[in-house]
Amino acid sequence: MTAATVEPTPRAARTLPRIPGRPILGHLASFRNDRVGMLLRLAKTHPDIVEMPMGLVRRVVVVSSPSLANEVLSTKQSAFVKAPGLAVFLRPVLGGGLLTSEHEVHERQRKLLAPAFAHKRIASYAATMAERAERFATTLREGEPLDLAEAMMRLTFEIVGKTLFDAEVVSDASAVGDALTTAMEVAMGQLGAVIPLPPMIPSPQNLKYKRAVARLDEVVYRIIRERRAEGGDRGDVLSMLLDARDEDGTAMTDRQVRDEAMTLFLAGHETTANALSWTFYLLARHPDARARMEAELDALGRVPSYEDLKQLPYTLAVFKEAMRLYPPAYVLGRRSVADATIGEHLVRKSSIVLVSILGIHRRSDLWPDPETFDPGRFLGDKEKQLPRCAYMPFGAGPRVCIGNHFALMEGHALLATIARRVRFEPTSAEPAELEPLVTLRPKGGLAMRAHVRT
Ligand code: HEM
Protein backbone atom coordinates (compact mmCIF):
# COMPACT_ATOMS: atom_id res chain seq x y z
CA MET A 1 0.00 0.00 0.00
CA THR A 2 1.46 3.37 -0.93
CA ALA A 3 0.36 6.69 0.54
CA ALA A 4 -2.99 7.04 2.25
CA THR A 5 -6.10 5.86 0.47
CA VAL A 6 -8.53 7.08 3.04
CA GLU A 7 -12.23 7.67 2.86
CA PRO A 8 -13.26 11.33 2.98
CA THR A 9 -14.05 12.54 6.47
CA PRO A 10 -17.81 12.28 7.03
CA ARG A 11 -19.37 15.52 8.14
CA ALA A 12 -20.79 13.84 11.20
CA ALA A 13 -17.32 13.09 12.61
CA ARG A 14 -17.12 14.63 16.04
CA THR A 15 -14.16 16.48 17.43
CA LEU A 16 -12.15 14.47 19.90
CA PRO A 17 -12.66 14.83 23.61
CA ARG A 18 -9.62 16.69 24.89
CA ILE A 19 -7.82 17.06 28.20
CA PRO A 20 -6.28 20.54 27.98
CA GLY A 21 -3.23 20.12 30.28
CA ARG A 22 -0.76 22.86 31.16
CA PRO A 23 -0.03 25.78 28.86
CA ILE A 24 2.57 25.03 26.17
CA LEU A 25 3.86 21.73 27.59
CA GLY A 26 0.44 20.13 27.87
CA HIS A 27 0.83 16.65 29.34
CA LEU A 28 4.50 16.24 28.52
CA ALA A 29 5.50 15.99 32.20
CA SER A 30 3.07 13.09 32.86
CA PHE A 31 4.25 11.40 29.69
CA ARG A 32 7.86 11.67 30.82
CA ASN A 33 7.47 10.88 34.49
CA ASP A 34 4.45 8.64 34.81
CA ARG A 35 3.69 7.07 31.48
CA VAL A 36 2.20 3.91 32.94
CA GLY A 37 0.02 5.76 35.46
CA MET A 38 -1.16 8.11 32.71
CA LEU A 39 -2.17 5.25 30.39
CA LEU A 40 -3.97 3.39 33.18
CA ARG A 41 -5.85 6.49 34.29
CA LEU A 42 -6.90 7.32 30.75
CA ALA A 43 -8.29 3.81 30.20
CA LYS A 44 -10.67 4.59 33.08
CA THR A 45 -11.51 8.24 32.45
CA HIS A 46 -11.54 8.12 28.64
CA PRO A 47 -11.93 4.45 27.76
CA ASP A 48 -12.34 5.07 24.03
CA ILE A 49 -10.23 7.90 22.67
CA VAL A 50 -8.92 11.24 23.90
CA GLU A 51 -6.65 14.01 22.68
CA MET A 52 -3.91 15.30 24.95
CA PRO A 53 -1.76 18.20 23.83
CA MET A 54 1.96 17.64 24.41
CA GLY A 55 4.43 20.39 23.72
CA LEU A 56 3.93 22.94 20.98
CA VAL A 57 3.72 20.72 17.98
CA ARG A 58 2.49 17.42 19.22
CA ARG A 59 -1.18 16.53 19.01
CA VAL A 60 -1.32 13.22 20.84
CA VAL A 61 -4.36 10.97 20.76
CA VAL A 62 -4.62 8.00 23.12
CA VAL A 63 -6.80 5.03 22.14
CA SER A 64 -7.83 2.59 24.91
CA SER A 65 -10.70 0.78 23.19
CA PRO A 66 -10.26 -2.53 21.35
CA SER A 67 -12.57 -1.63 18.47
CA LEU A 68 -10.88 1.72 17.88
CA ALA A 69 -7.46 0.09 18.20
CA ASN A 70 -8.57 -2.29 15.48
CA GLU A 71 -9.48 0.66 13.24
CA VAL A 72 -6.10 2.35 13.74
CA LEU A 73 -4.06 -0.81 13.28
CA SER A 74 -6.16 -2.72 10.75
CA THR A 75 -9.21 -1.41 8.99
CA LYS A 76 -8.01 2.21 8.62
CA GLN A 77 -4.30 1.56 8.84
CA SER A 78 -3.60 3.22 5.50
CA ALA A 79 -4.14 6.60 7.21
CA PHE A 80 -1.23 5.90 9.56
CA VAL A 81 2.50 5.29 9.56
CA LYS A 82 4.77 4.44 12.48
CA ALA A 83 5.22 7.29 14.94
CA PRO A 84 8.45 9.29 14.67
CA GLY A 85 9.58 8.05 18.10
CA LEU A 86 10.48 4.74 16.57
CA ALA A 87 11.19 5.81 13.04
CA VAL A 88 13.54 8.67 13.94
CA PHE A 89 15.03 7.90 17.33
CA LEU A 90 15.49 4.18 16.86
CA ARG A 91 16.69 4.60 13.28
CA PRO A 92 20.39 4.46 14.20
CA VAL A 93 19.77 1.00 15.67
CA LEU A 94 17.10 -0.47 13.45
CA GLY A 95 17.81 1.41 10.21
CA GLY A 96 15.26 0.60 7.53
CA GLY A 97 14.46 -2.88 8.89
CA LEU A 98 11.03 -4.46 9.13
CA LEU A 99 9.92 -2.72 12.32
CA THR A 100 10.49 0.78 10.98
CA SER A 101 10.09 0.52 7.19
CA GLU A 102 6.88 1.57 5.42
CA HIS A 103 4.76 0.81 2.38
CA GLU A 104 6.38 -1.15 -0.50
CA VAL A 105 9.69 -1.71 1.29
CA HIS A 106 7.86 -3.08 4.31
CA GLU A 107 5.62 -5.30 2.19
CA ARG A 108 8.56 -6.73 0.24
CA GLN A 109 10.70 -7.40 3.31
CA ARG A 110 7.81 -8.92 5.24
CA LYS A 111 7.17 -11.35 2.38
CA LEU A 112 10.85 -12.18 2.22
CA LEU A 113 11.10 -12.98 5.93
CA ALA A 114 7.76 -14.76 6.30
CA PRO A 115 9.12 -18.29 5.57
CA ALA A 116 11.42 -18.05 8.61
CA PHE A 117 8.32 -17.70 10.78
CA ALA A 118 6.17 -20.36 9.09
CA HIS A 119 4.63 -22.88 11.45
CA LYS A 120 6.85 -25.80 10.42
CA ARG A 121 10.01 -23.78 10.69
CA ILE A 122 9.12 -22.52 14.14
CA ALA A 123 8.44 -26.04 15.35
CA SER A 124 12.00 -26.90 14.35
CA TYR A 125 13.33 -24.20 16.73
CA ALA A 126 11.69 -25.82 19.79
CA ALA A 127 14.54 -28.22 20.49
CA THR A 128 17.14 -25.42 20.52
CA MET A 129 14.96 -23.35 22.82
CA ALA A 130 14.47 -26.17 25.31
CA GLU A 131 18.12 -27.22 25.14
CA ARG A 132 19.41 -23.70 25.90
CA ALA A 133 16.84 -23.21 28.68
CA GLU A 134 17.77 -26.55 30.25
CA ARG A 135 21.44 -25.60 30.12
CA PHE A 136 20.66 -22.31 31.90
CA ALA A 137 18.48 -23.97 34.55
CA THR A 138 20.93 -26.72 35.37
CA THR A 139 23.80 -24.29 35.99
CA LEU A 140 21.88 -22.59 38.81
CA ARG A 141 22.86 -23.61 42.34
CA GLU A 142 20.60 -23.76 45.39
CA GLY A 143 20.24 -20.27 46.91
CA GLU A 144 22.13 -18.60 44.06
CA PRO A 145 21.28 -14.90 43.68
CA LEU A 146 20.77 -13.58 40.16
CA ASP A 147 19.27 -10.74 38.18
CA LEU A 148 16.58 -12.73 36.43
CA ALA A 149 15.78 -9.96 33.96
CA GLU A 150 19.37 -9.94 32.76
CA ALA A 151 19.50 -13.74 32.66
CA MET A 152 16.37 -13.84 30.48
CA MET A 153 17.86 -11.24 28.11
CA ARG A 154 20.97 -13.36 27.69
CA LEU A 155 19.01 -16.53 27.13
CA THR A 156 16.57 -15.13 24.58
CA PHE A 157 19.42 -13.33 22.80
CA GLU A 158 21.35 -16.58 22.56
CA ILE A 159 18.23 -18.33 21.20
CA VAL A 160 17.47 -15.75 18.52
CA GLY A 161 21.13 -15.88 17.45
CA LYS A 162 21.12 -19.66 17.17
CA THR A 163 17.66 -20.21 15.63
CA LEU A 164 17.56 -17.38 13.11
CA PHE A 165 21.25 -16.79 12.37
CA ASP A 166 22.89 -20.07 13.33
CA ALA A 167 25.39 -17.99 15.31
CA GLU A 168 26.76 -18.36 18.82
CA VAL A 169 26.41 -14.91 20.36
CA VAL A 170 26.35 -15.63 24.05
CA SER A 171 29.71 -13.95 24.61
CA ASP A 172 28.32 -10.73 23.08
CA ALA A 173 25.19 -10.73 25.23
CA SER A 174 26.24 -8.31 27.95
CA ALA A 175 27.76 -5.76 25.55
CA VAL A 176 24.61 -5.93 23.45
CA GLY A 177 22.41 -5.66 26.52
CA ASP A 178 24.21 -2.49 27.69
CA ALA A 179 24.15 -0.96 24.24
CA LEU A 180 20.49 -1.72 23.79
CA THR A 181 19.53 -0.22 27.14
CA THR A 182 21.46 2.94 26.33
CA ALA A 183 19.82 3.17 22.92
CA MET A 184 16.33 2.77 24.36
CA GLU A 185 16.92 5.23 27.17
CA VAL A 186 18.14 7.88 24.77
CA ALA A 187 15.31 7.19 22.31
CA MET A 188 12.65 7.44 25.01
CA GLY A 189 14.31 10.48 26.58
CA GLN A 190 14.13 12.22 23.21
CA LEU A 191 10.52 11.26 22.72
CA GLY A 192 9.59 12.95 26.00
CA ALA A 193 11.91 15.94 25.52
CA VAL A 194 10.61 19.49 25.21
CA ILE A 195 12.91 20.02 22.23
CA PRO A 196 13.91 16.60 20.89
CA LEU A 197 17.41 16.51 19.41
CA PRO A 198 17.57 14.26 16.35
CA PRO A 199 20.31 11.60 16.53
CA MET A 200 22.68 13.49 14.20
CA ILE A 201 23.12 16.40 16.68
CA PRO A 202 26.28 15.61 18.70
CA SER A 203 24.85 16.07 22.21
CA PRO A 204 26.48 13.99 24.99
CA GLN A 205 23.43 11.69 25.03
CA ASN A 206 23.59 11.23 21.27
CA LEU A 207 27.31 10.49 21.40
CA LYS A 208 26.66 7.82 24.01
CA TYR A 209 23.95 6.47 21.71
CA LYS A 210 26.37 6.45 18.80
CA ARG A 211 28.89 4.39 20.75
CA ALA A 212 26.15 1.94 21.73
CA VAL A 213 25.12 1.54 18.10
CA ALA A 214 28.74 1.01 17.05
CA ARG A 215 28.95 -1.86 19.55
CA LEU A 216 25.79 -3.43 18.19
CA ASP A 217 27.06 -2.99 14.63
CA GLU A 218 30.28 -4.77 15.48
CA VAL A 219 28.37 -7.91 16.48
CA VAL A 220 25.97 -7.95 13.54
CA TYR A 221 28.53 -7.09 10.83
CA ARG A 222 30.82 -9.78 12.22
CA ILE A 223 28.09 -12.38 11.80
CA ILE A 224 27.38 -11.21 8.23
CA ARG A 225 31.10 -11.22 7.37
CA GLU A 226 31.62 -14.71 8.71
CA ARG A 227 28.67 -16.07 6.77
CA ARG A 228 29.66 -14.38 3.52
CA ALA A 229 33.12 -15.91 3.91
CA GLU A 230 31.70 -19.39 4.49
CA GLY A 231 29.07 -19.16 1.76
CA GLY A 232 26.42 -21.86 1.29
CA ASP A 233 22.74 -21.93 2.20
CA ARG A 234 21.99 -22.96 5.75
CA GLY A 235 18.28 -22.38 5.34
CA ASP A 236 18.20 -19.79 8.11
CA VAL A 237 17.23 -16.11 8.06
CA LEU A 238 20.74 -14.95 7.30
CA SER A 239 20.94 -17.19 4.22
CA MET A 240 17.54 -15.89 3.15
CA LEU A 241 18.70 -12.30 3.45
CA LEU A 242 22.00 -12.89 1.69
CA ASP A 243 20.39 -14.87 -1.14
CA ALA A 244 17.47 -12.47 -1.69
CA ARG A 245 17.40 -10.82 -5.13
CA ASP A 246 15.34 -7.91 -6.43
CA GLU A 247 13.36 -8.31 -9.64
CA ASP A 248 16.41 -6.95 -11.48
CA GLY A 249 18.65 -9.48 -9.75
CA THR A 250 20.32 -7.07 -7.28
CA ALA A 251 21.27 -8.51 -3.92
CA MET A 252 20.72 -6.67 -0.64
CA THR A 253 23.62 -4.50 0.47
CA ASP A 254 25.43 -5.29 3.73
CA ARG A 255 23.67 -2.31 5.22
CA GLN A 256 20.22 -3.66 4.29
CA VAL A 257 21.10 -7.11 5.61
CA ARG A 258 22.41 -5.49 8.78
CA ASP A 259 19.19 -3.53 9.28
CA GLU A 260 16.98 -6.60 8.98
CA ALA A 261 19.28 -8.73 11.10
CA MET A 262 19.56 -6.04 13.79
CA THR A 263 15.79 -5.62 13.85
CA LEU A 264 15.22 -9.34 14.32
CA PHE A 265 17.95 -9.61 16.92
CA LEU A 266 16.54 -6.79 18.98
CA ALA A 267 12.80 -7.23 18.43
CA GLY A 268 13.31 -10.96 18.83
CA HIS A 269 14.83 -11.09 22.29
CA GLU A 270 14.07 -8.03 24.40
CA THR A 271 10.29 -8.42 24.40
CA THR A 272 10.29 -12.16 25.12
CA ALA A 273 12.83 -11.67 27.91
CA ASN A 274 10.65 -9.03 29.56
CA ALA A 275 7.57 -11.22 29.23
CA LEU A 276 9.40 -14.10 30.94
CA SER A 277 10.78 -11.87 33.70
CA TRP A 278 7.30 -10.62 34.55
CA THR A 279 5.99 -14.19 34.41
CA PHE A 280 8.48 -15.44 37.01
CA TYR A 281 7.85 -12.35 39.11
CA LEU A 282 4.08 -12.99 39.12
CA LEU A 283 4.53 -16.70 39.86
CA ALA A 284 6.67 -15.86 42.90
CA ARG A 285 3.81 -13.72 44.21
CA HIS A 286 1.11 -16.29 43.43
CA PRO A 287 2.14 -19.61 44.95
CA ASP A 288 -1.19 -21.28 44.09
CA ALA A 289 -0.76 -20.63 40.39
CA ARG A 290 2.86 -21.70 40.62
CA ALA A 291 1.95 -24.96 42.36
CA ARG A 292 -0.65 -25.73 39.68
CA MET A 293 1.84 -25.04 36.92
CA GLU A 294 4.56 -27.12 38.58
CA ALA A 295 2.12 -30.02 38.95
CA GLU A 296 1.47 -29.85 35.19
CA LEU A 297 5.21 -29.83 34.48
CA ASP A 298 5.90 -32.67 36.91
CA ALA A 299 3.15 -34.78 35.34
CA LEU A 300 4.97 -34.48 32.00
CA GLY A 301 8.21 -35.26 33.77
CA ARG A 302 10.74 -34.32 31.06
CA VAL A 303 12.13 -31.37 29.15
CA PRO A 304 9.22 -30.59 26.80
CA SER A 305 9.52 -31.26 23.09
CA TYR A 306 7.41 -29.32 20.60
CA GLU A 307 4.76 -32.06 20.70
CA ASP A 308 4.76 -32.06 24.52
CA LEU A 309 3.79 -28.40 24.72
CA LYS A 310 0.17 -29.31 23.94
CA GLN A 311 0.06 -31.11 27.26
CA LEU A 312 0.98 -27.93 29.14
CA PRO A 313 -2.04 -25.61 28.68
CA TYR A 314 -1.86 -24.08 32.13
CA THR A 315 1.80 -23.12 31.62
CA LEU A 316 0.87 -21.34 28.40
CA ALA A 317 -2.05 -19.62 30.17
CA VAL A 318 0.38 -18.35 32.83
CA PHE A 319 2.60 -16.83 30.15
CA LYS A 320 -0.34 -15.22 28.36
CA GLU A 321 -1.83 -13.80 31.55
CA ALA A 322 1.56 -12.30 32.46
CA MET A 323 1.58 -10.55 29.05
CA ARG A 324 -1.92 -9.24 29.73
CA LEU A 325 -0.84 -7.56 32.96
CA TYR A 326 2.62 -6.55 31.70
CA PRO A 327 2.50 -6.35 27.91
CA PRO A 328 6.14 -5.88 26.82
CA ALA A 329 5.01 -3.63 23.94
CA TYR A 330 2.67 -1.63 26.16
CA VAL A 331 1.87 1.14 23.70
CA LEU A 332 2.06 1.34 19.90
CA GLY A 333 2.70 4.66 18.21
CA ARG A 334 1.37 5.84 14.88
CA ARG A 335 1.29 9.16 13.01
CA SER A 336 -1.73 10.03 10.89
CA VAL A 337 -0.85 10.95 7.31
CA ALA A 338 -4.43 11.99 6.49
CA ASP A 339 -7.55 13.00 8.37
CA ALA A 340 -9.25 9.82 9.57
CA THR A 341 -12.50 8.99 11.29
CA ILE A 342 -11.82 6.69 14.20
CA GLY A 343 -15.06 5.53 15.76
CA GLU A 344 -17.12 8.66 15.28
CA HIS A 345 -14.28 11.04 15.95
CA LEU A 346 -12.08 13.00 13.64
CA VAL A 347 -8.35 12.35 14.07
CA ARG A 348 -6.61 15.10 12.19
CA LYS A 349 -3.64 14.63 9.91
CA SER A 350 -0.24 14.72 11.69
CA SER A 351 -1.57 13.53 15.02
CA ILE A 352 0.43 11.05 17.06
CA VAL A 353 -1.87 8.17 17.96
CA LEU A 354 -0.90 5.96 20.88
CA VAL A 355 -2.70 2.64 21.05
CA SER A 356 -2.64 1.78 24.74
CA ILE A 357 -2.25 -1.97 24.91
CA LEU A 358 -1.66 -1.68 28.64
CA GLY A 359 -4.88 0.30 29.11
CA ILE A 360 -6.91 -2.15 27.00
CA HIS A 361 -5.51 -5.13 28.91
CA ARG A 362 -6.64 -3.63 32.21
CA ARG A 363 -10.17 -2.53 31.31
CA SER A 364 -12.60 -3.85 33.88
CA ASP A 365 -15.43 -4.26 31.34
CA LEU A 366 -13.26 -6.70 29.37
CA TRP A 367 -11.33 -8.28 32.23
CA PRO A 368 -13.26 -8.71 35.48
CA ASP A 369 -11.03 -7.84 38.42
CA PRO A 370 -8.37 -6.67 35.97
CA GLU A 371 -5.48 -6.23 38.43
CA THR A 372 -5.69 -9.86 39.56
CA PHE A 373 -3.31 -12.42 38.09
CA ASP A 374 -5.60 -15.23 36.93
CA PRO A 375 -4.24 -17.60 34.27
CA GLY A 376 -7.68 -19.25 34.16
CA ARG A 377 -8.72 -16.43 31.83
CA PHE A 378 -6.73 -18.16 29.08
CA LEU A 379 -7.86 -21.76 29.59
CA GLY A 380 -10.15 -23.59 27.16
CA ASP A 381 -11.49 -21.35 24.41
CA LYS A 382 -12.05 -18.27 26.60
CA GLU A 383 -9.55 -16.24 24.59
CA LYS A 384 -11.53 -16.86 21.39
CA GLN A 385 -14.63 -15.32 22.97
CA LEU A 386 -12.92 -11.99 23.60
CA PRO A 387 -13.72 -9.04 21.34
CA ARG A 388 -11.12 -8.43 18.63
CA CYS A 389 -8.07 -6.58 19.99
CA ALA A 390 -9.13 -7.00 23.65
CA TYR A 391 -5.93 -9.01 24.04
CA MET A 392 -3.18 -7.85 21.75
CA PRO A 393 0.34 -8.25 23.13
CA PHE A 394 1.54 -8.69 19.55
CA GLY A 395 -0.39 -5.80 18.01
CA ALA A 396 -2.78 -6.26 15.07
CA GLY A 397 -3.20 -5.67 11.36
CA PRO A 398 -0.49 -5.75 8.69
CA ARG A 399 2.18 -4.69 11.22
CA VAL A 400 1.30 -7.44 13.71
CA CYS A 401 4.41 -9.00 15.24
CA ILE A 402 5.98 -11.32 12.67
CA GLY A 403 7.48 -13.28 15.57
CA ASN A 404 4.24 -13.85 17.50
CA HIS A 405 4.13 -17.65 17.12
CA PHE A 406 7.89 -17.86 17.66
CA ALA A 407 7.54 -15.81 20.85
CA LEU A 408 4.57 -17.74 22.22
CA MET A 409 6.32 -21.03 21.68
CA GLU A 410 9.55 -19.70 23.12
CA GLY A 411 7.82 -18.31 26.21
CA HIS A 412 5.93 -21.58 26.67
CA ALA A 413 8.99 -23.80 26.18
CA LEU A 414 11.37 -21.70 28.30
CA LEU A 415 8.91 -21.31 31.13
CA ALA A 416 8.19 -25.05 31.17
CA THR A 417 11.83 -26.08 30.98
CA ILE A 418 13.12 -23.65 33.59
CA ALA A 419 10.24 -23.89 36.08
CA ARG A 420 10.49 -27.68 36.09
CA ARG A 421 13.98 -27.35 37.53
CA VAL A 422 14.02 -24.10 39.51
CA ARG A 423 11.82 -21.79 41.53
CA PHE A 424 12.69 -18.12 41.86
CA GLU A 425 12.02 -16.06 44.98
CA PRO A 426 12.50 -12.28 44.98
CA THR A 427 15.17 -11.07 47.39
CA SER A 428 12.89 -8.19 48.39
CA ALA A 429 9.21 -8.16 49.33
CA GLU A 430 8.80 -4.76 47.63
CA PRO A 431 6.77 -4.85 44.41
CA ALA A 432 8.87 -4.46 41.27
CA GLU A 433 8.81 -1.03 39.69
CA LEU A 434 7.91 -0.65 36.05
CA GLU A 435 10.32 0.96 33.64
CA PRO A 436 8.42 1.90 30.52
CA LEU A 437 11.07 2.40 27.84
CA VAL A 438 10.26 1.25 24.33
CA THR A 439 9.24 -1.94 26.13
CA LEU A 440 7.96 -2.47 29.64
CA ARG A 441 10.84 -3.64 31.83
CA PRO A 442 11.26 -4.24 35.55
CA LYS A 443 13.21 -1.21 36.77
CA GLY A 444 16.74 -2.02 37.93
CA GLY A 445 16.31 -5.68 36.93
CA LEU A 446 14.74 -8.46 39.03
CA ALA A 447 16.82 -9.60 41.98
CA MET A 448 15.90 -13.23 42.67
CA ARG A 449 17.27 -16.27 44.46
CA ALA A 450 17.15 -19.67 42.76
CA HIS A 451 15.74 -22.72 44.52
CA VAL A 452 16.48 -25.98 42.83
CA ARG A 453 13.46 -28.31 42.47
CA THR A 454 14.95 -31.31 40.67
C1 HEM B 1 6.71 -11.74 23.82
C2 HEM B 1 7.41 -11.38 22.78
C3 HEM B 1 7.02 -10.34 21.78
C4 HEM B 1 6.12 -9.31 21.87
C5 HEM B 1 5.25 -8.94 23.04
C6 HEM B 1 6.17 -8.61 20.60
C7 HEM B 1 5.35 -7.53 20.28
C8 HEM B 1 5.33 -6.92 19.06
C9 HEM B 1 4.37 -5.90 18.66
C10 HEM B 1 3.26 -5.35 19.54
C11 HEM B 1 4.66 -5.55 17.39
C12 HEM B 1 3.89 -4.52 16.54
C13 HEM B 1 4.51 -3.16 16.65
C14 HEM B 1 3.64 -2.09 16.01
O1 HEM B 1 2.56 -2.39 15.48
O2 HEM B 1 4.05 -0.93 16.05
C15 HEM B 1 5.80 -6.31 16.97
C16 HEM B 1 6.39 -6.23 15.74
C17 HEM B 1 7.49 -6.97 15.36
N1 HEM B 1 8.08 -7.99 16.07
FE1 HEM B 1 7.51 -8.67 17.88
N2 HEM B 1 7.09 -9.21 19.79
C18 HEM B 1 7.62 -10.27 20.45
C19 HEM B 1 8.57 -11.16 19.98
C20 HEM B 1 9.15 -11.09 18.75
C21 HEM B 1 10.08 -12.06 18.21
C22 HEM B 1 10.51 -13.33 18.92
C23 HEM B 1 10.49 -11.58 17.00
C24 HEM B 1 11.45 -12.18 16.01
C25 HEM B 1 12.14 -13.25 16.20
C26 HEM B 1 9.80 -10.34 16.76
C27 HEM B 1 9.96 -9.53 15.66
C28 HEM B 1 9.13 -8.47 15.34
C29 HEM B 1 9.25 -7.72 14.10
C30 HEM B 1 10.29 -7.90 13.02
C31 HEM B 1 8.20 -6.78 14.11
C32 HEM B 1 7.85 -5.78 13.01
C33 HEM B 1 6.80 -6.42 12.12
C34 HEM B 1 6.29 -5.53 11.01
O3 HEM B 1 6.21 -4.31 11.18
O4 HEM B 1 5.97 -6.08 9.96
N3 HEM B 1 8.99 -10.08 17.83
N4 HEM B 1 6.19 -7.16 17.99
SSE layout and pairing:
Blueprint: H1 28-33, H2 35-45, E1 49-54, E2 58-63, H3 66-75, E3 80-82, H4 84-89, H5 91-94, H6 103-113, H7 119-139, E4 145-147, H8 148-165, H9 173-191, H10 204-230, H11 237-243, H12 254-267, H13 270-285, H14 287-300, H15 313-325, E5 331-336, E6 340-342, E7 345-347, E8 352-356, H16 357-361, H17 404-421, E9 422-426, E10 434-436, E11 440-442, E12 447-452
Parallel strand pairs: 2-8
Antiparallel strand pairs: 1-2, 3-5, 4-12, 5-8, 6-7, 9-12, 10-11
Structure description:
The strands form four sheets. The chain has a five-stranded mixed sheet with strand order 1-2-8-5-3. It has a three-stranded antiparallel sheet with strand order 4-12-9. A two-stranded antiparallel sheet has the order 6-7. The model is unreliable at 1-5 (pLDDT under 50). The chain has a single domain (28-452), classed as Orthogonal Bundle (Cytochrome p450), CATH 1.10.630.10. With 454 residues, it is an alpha+beta fold. The N and C termini lie far apart (53 Å). It has 17 helices and twelve strands. Helix 7 (119-139) crosses helix 8 (148-165), helix 8 packs antiparallel against helix 13 and helix 13 crosses helix 15 (313-325). A hairpin with a 3-residue loop joins strand 1 (49-54) and strand 2 (58-63). It is 48% helix and 11% strand. The structure holds protoporphyrin IX containing FE. Residues 98-99, 110, 160, 263-264, 267-268, 271-272, 275, 328-329, 332, 393-395, 399, 401-403, 406-407 line the site of protoporphyrin IX containing FE.
